[in-house]
Amino acid sequence: MKKKHKVIGITGGIASGKSTVSDYIKSKGYPVLDADIYARKVVEPGSQGLKEIVEAFGEAALNEDGTMNRQQVGSIIFNDPKKRAILNGITHPIIRQKMNEDRDFYLQTTHVFQDIPLLFENGLERQMDEVIVVYVDRAVQIKRLMTRNNMSEADAISRIESQMSLDEKKDRASVVFDNTGTIETLYKQIDDYLQELS
Ligand SMILES: CC(C)(COP(=O)(O)OP(=O)(O)OC[C@H]1O[C@@H](n2cnc3c(N)ncnc32)[C@H](O)[C@@H]1O)[C@@H](O)C(=O)NCCC(=O)NCCS
Ligand SMILES: Nc1ncnc2c1ncn2[C@@H]1O[C@H](COP(=O)(O)OP(=O)(O)OP(=O)(O)O)[C@@H](O)[C@H]1O
């Protein structure tokens, strides 16, 4: 009997290593749809998404060239749950619709991965055959986020705490990749997983 193609979610905490996992899986030939990339597309200049964001957050949400001022919007929403819910309400339905269309296209021929930072927060595990959680120790997570984003410890912690705790995500996972160690250790876990999958 023909094997059904799977929809596999990749999630984790901010800076836990989702993109590192996604890039490696892509290099092995699988399609990986990245919610952060869709999130950028739905707020391009001229989009309905950006128009609604300016209505909700004012002109301060814009750079001079008409693109969204990501730093400004980020500094508002990562410190204010109500504002975060407003931004999510504008962006998430459009992101989901576009991602689902692409997922259905790829599913005809292959397994599809979806890298979605807020997968559990948005109850999307129901749409997945499996959910991989990329886990990292909290101290290492704070350090990697501070280094990558050139950010203070307080800002790193407020971003981490605007998401469900990584320990809870780990408990809900069907598969856990532990990325507290080296990249090589991470790749080994992915290789083992992909071997099972094929
Ligand atoms: C708030 C924004 C402007 C910050 O932009 P910035 O370039 O600094 O960060 P980037 O988009 O690269 O996101 C980095 C990470 O932040 C986390 N994050 C982003 N948005 C959210 C959110 N609404 N709630 C919690 N965590 C979030 C995710 O882990 C994401 O991977 C931007 O993230 C955004 O438009 N968010 C709303 C859309 C969204 O929810 N995206 C997440 C995936 S659906
Ligand atoms: N095993 C590792 N050892 C050292 N550095 C790592 C390791 N894994 C990832 N990194 C680094 O940590 C940072 C976060 O990784 P990555 O960007 O893959 O996380 P992410 O979960 O996709 O982040 P975000 O939620 O912000 O999109 C990056 O700078 C990356 O190069």
From TrEMBL:
Pathway: Cofactor biosynthesis; coenzyme A biosynthesis; CoA from (R)-pantothenate: step 5/5. HAMAP family: Dephospho_CoA_kinase. This is Dephospho-CoA kinase. The lineage of its organism: Bacteria, Bacillati, Bacillota, Bacilli, Bacillales. NCBIfam families: dephospho-CoA kinase (TIGR00152). InterPro entries: Depp_CoAkinase (IPR001977), P-loop_NTPase (IPR027417). It comes from the Bacteria. GO terms for biological process: coenzyme A biosynthetic process. It catalyses: 3'-dephospho-CoA + ATP = ADP + CoA + H(+). Keywords: ATP-binding, Coenzyme A biosynthesis, Cytoplasm, Kinase, Nucleotide-binding, Transferase. It is an enzyme of class 2 (transferase). Its EC number is 2.7.1.24. Pfam families: CoaE. Catalyzes the phosphorylation of the 3'-hydroxyl group of dephosphocoenzyme A to form coenzyme A. It comes from Phocicoccus pinnipedialis. GO terms for cellular component: cytoplasm. Belongs to the CoaE family. The keyword Chloroplast does not apply. The keyword Kinase applies. ATP binds at residues 15-20. It is found in: Cytoplasm. One of its GO terms (molecular function) is ATP binding.
